[in-house]
Amino acid sequence: MGKGMRAGKKPKGPGMGNMQKQMQQMQAMQKKMDEVQAEINQMETSASSGGGAVTVIVTGAKEIKDIQIKPEVVDPDDIEMLQDLILTAANEALRQMEEISQGEMSKLTAGLGIPGF
Predict the structure, then answer these.
(1) 9-40, pLDDT tens digit by residue?
(2) CA pair distance 45, 52, nearest whole angstrom
(3) Checking phi first, is residue 93 left (phi over 0); if not, alpha (psi -120 to 50) or beta?
């Protein structure tokens, strides 16, 4: 046996305690990320198009919750315009929610050097 070693004891490699600490930190970070994601899922944002003719509300889970259409914009002879207004408002609301979601997550991961956050 090497100097300073006792029978039955394994030598501790450098950083073994540090590795365990890092694992605990990562588990705590994962828990916090799950909490933040749950908060984001409860959020809502809305976007309008056509000067407020169509409004779409989106949840943090990126699901469309509501679509509001002003009656004066409904023209049976111009369905394409209504479809475009809905698409524009829905895409903008989803884009806004993605931006909110990334902003909330980046608060959590700031300074960690994690790419993509």
Answers:
(1) 555 555 567 888 888 888 988 898 899 889 99
(2) 15
(3) alpha
Strands 64-69, 54-59: pairing is: antiparallel
Q: Is 104 exposed, middle or buried (0-12, 13-18, 19+ CB in 10 A)?
A: middle
Kindly report, residue by residue over 84-96, the tens digit of the pLDDT. Answer: 999 999 999 999 9
Separation CA 102–CA 116 (nearest Å): 9
Structure tokens at 42: 């409860």
Residue 88, token pair as written in the block: 């524009």
Sequence-ordered strand ranges (E) for the chain: 44-49, 54-59, 64-69
